[in-house]
Amino acid sequence: MVPTNEFLTGCRRAVSALSTAADEIAANAPDARILAEAGDRGVFSPEDESALLSWFARFLTVRSGLWEVVGDVSAPLDGSVDRVVGTDHWRCFVLGYTAACLIVRLDRLLLEEVARDPLTQRKLNEGSQVHRIPRKQYTAVFESFTDPGKARAMEVAMQFAARNRVTVEGMKDDRIVDSFVVDLPEREVVLEPSRRRYVSLLVNYLLHAFRRRGASARHRGTARIWRDYRPRTAADVWPSVGSAACSISSMPRREKCSGVMRRLLSSDNCFADVIPECFP
What we know:
Blueprint: H1 5-27, H2 32-41, H3 46-74, H4 87-114, H5 118-126, H6 137-145, H7 148-163, H8 165-169, H9 178-187, H10 195-229, H11 234-237, H12 253-266
Helix pairs in contact: 1-3, 1-4, 3-4, 4-6, 4-9
């Protein structure tokens, strides 16, 4: 597939606009002091929460646009740098590589600077209908950033760019990618070639996922117990309201709750160590 001039011009405009937007996202990132104070309190003020979610909504919009560009310019190359054989293909590579660098920059900004505190991570994962943020978006970004396949693809692109640095720098006067080639050294600063660093991030993600599964399991378990073993009235238990002899005190709720909790514990739930007091 040979990219058309119209296609390349459109991608250039998109990357240019998204690059400016990414710079604004970084410049207007939530204040670390405010986030730390909220973490110490254990709760965000309404104003700080609204500001955080508004910023995160813009973050997700720009990030999504960058991923769309990566997908678009990868199509003429069939997703492989081995297909870079002509000028237009080189243009696609520079545009996609620039977009990928911007994605890494945004992801590291979120994961390493903004959402360092568990409270902020939970708040971002809650989502917001007002801001049109789906649930679990913080986890989605962390999972994407530590995805082995994506990490490998980024490593291949970095190695390809390094091997062909002379060719890439020779496109500084190209009508499509001139400014992107000039800015590329600055954009590449955020890339992390260290395998040890990647393993550290992967471990952090696994710990995060483990904690979130534990929180979800606790929530589901509590909701189920409340639904199935809530206090019942005589009308709930006996079809005839006149059968007042059946009282709530006669319901073996404690035994039923204990049985459910024991079954939960026996299924290797990660919150098994936090509720032993349920069984005096």
